[in-house]
Amino acid sequence: NAEYMGGHTRLSEGYSILSRDVERIQSIGKNCVIGQAGFHGDNQFLYKVLQTRAKIFEFDHGQALDCHSTASLLSNLLYSRRFFPILSYCLVAGVEQDSQGQWKGRVYGYDVVGSFESRPCEATGEAGTLMLPLLDNQVEFKNLGPNAERVPLTRERAVGLIQDVLQAATERDIMTGDFGQIVLIDKDGVQQRRIPLRRD
Amino acid sequence: MDVDNMYEGFSFENCLRNTRLAEKGLKAKPYNKTGTTIVGLMFKDGVVLGADTRATGGSTVLSKDCEKLHYLAPNMYCAGAGTAADMVMVGNMIAGQLNLHSLNTDRPPRVVTALTMLSHYLYKYQGYIGCHLIVGGWDITGPQLYSIDSLGHYNDDVYATMGSGMMAAKTVFDARFKLDMEMDDAIKLTADAVAAGILNDMGSGGTVNLCVITKDKTEYLDHYRTICSKGPRQGDYTVKPGTTSLISSDVIQVVSEAMET
Fold it and tell me: Are B104 and B57 in contact (CB under 8 A)?
């Protein structure tokens, strides 16, 4: 009934660091966030467009976009530029109410042209491939034998997991580091926290 | 394999094949380069060489603790940036040749000897051996510091920086260097320069390794300063027994025969 998203705050070009303080995870609406990796210019552009479209929807329909609708909108936005893609590797995460009124968390992963899928966990960006195996094991309990202990993912464990995963990515990827931005989304809204990461 | 020429120098057998593969679209894997910040500083009584400890292949960190200060002689070290394999091989080769030369001449080796050997060797290979070096030491003519690039060009300097972090380190030296510094100040300044490279250049990272060479001794200060460390681990990811399921097991007796000499 909650979602976590983690990202790092380093902006780089070649071997240089342009900024140590770029927030990659931003909110769309009350219960949804978008995290973006890839080309920073396109990320900013895409976020503006998505935010504007979300506002227009709210004015037209009198209610905010919910999470899966935001995800679908993003997919259409990306596909509209199929032949000159927006170089943005997005993740949309949020909570929404299902037909029984239960709040459920969802994560949607994208490619640059808008193909998306809802998954229990997802990682993207330069170090995505470094983080994904650990997430697969701890969130989806992959590669464990049938008798292995499956420790349920509580909120505390989830925050710890994201922190560890970001630290692990920072150790082995030169482009990741400086600060980690961890965002919690639940029915009450979005909370953010920052953790320090290695600066080298 | 060309057996007759196996022990002499480089083998170029695969060059044609590699060019044809590249034309067909096969990209070679990136070499293990050392990204790197290396620095050298001359002070009143000797030289200090400094280096970071990160080796990268593309944008992945391949080693967090690699050694970039290579031993050449008891009174001489070289700091190396560039392709890691080239650095190690060239370092070992020159160290061996210096040792032989020193035995032949019955004198401790001079830094200019190492410099000439390196310069000629690198020029011969026209830059294809990717070594960018800072050679420093103390010999009979006093403290010496030289920087050599992969094409064989060298400069004598009172301070030098090489590698992808050279600009970051150079700013620290340009601002604070003074001639004839004391050893403690020199060590601190060198460590600060490497730290600047580590923090501001993404190809450099890890800890600062220093080597201080004076008339009386050569001191290798391993892990002199740690710039960043990994944060505390939050969760417990130890794999408990029973995680991998045992499907079947088989015990085979291995009979070994004792050898009689």
Answer: no
* Tens digit of each residue's pLDDT (9 = 90 or more) over A119-172: 999 999 889 999 999 999 999 999 888 888 888 888 889 999 999 999 999 999
What is the C-alpha separation between A30 and A46, in angstroms, rounded?
19
Residue from B223, B215, B186 nearest B74 by CA: B215
Interatomic CA distance for residues A2 and A191, integer angstroms: 11
> What are the chain A neighbours of B54 within 8 Å (beta carbons)?
174, 200
Q: CB neighbours (10 Å) of residue A101?
A: 6
Other C-beta atoms lying within 10 Å of the C-beta of residue A100: 6
* Helix, strand or coil, per DSSP, at residue A35: strand
ipTM for the complex shown: 0.83
Q: Sort A161 into a burial class: Cβ within 10 Å, 0-12 / 13-18 / 19+.
A: buried
B34 in catalytic set: no
Q: Retrieve residue B39's tokens.
A: 């620095």
Rounded CA-CA distance B219/B137 in Å is 11
Whether the Cβ atoms of residue B37 and residue B52 lie closer than 8 Å to each other: yes
DSSP string of A158-185? HHHHHHHHHHHHHHHBTT--SEEEEEEE
A50 CB burial (10 A radius; 0-12, 13-18, 19+): buried
Q: Which two tokens stand for residue A155?
A: 């909120």
CA distance A192 to chain B (A): 18
The answer to whether residue B32 neighbours chain A at the CB level (below 8 Å) is no
How confident is residue B194, by pLDDT bands cut at 50, 70 and 90? very high
- Within 8 A of B233 by CB-CB distance, chain A residues are 164, 167
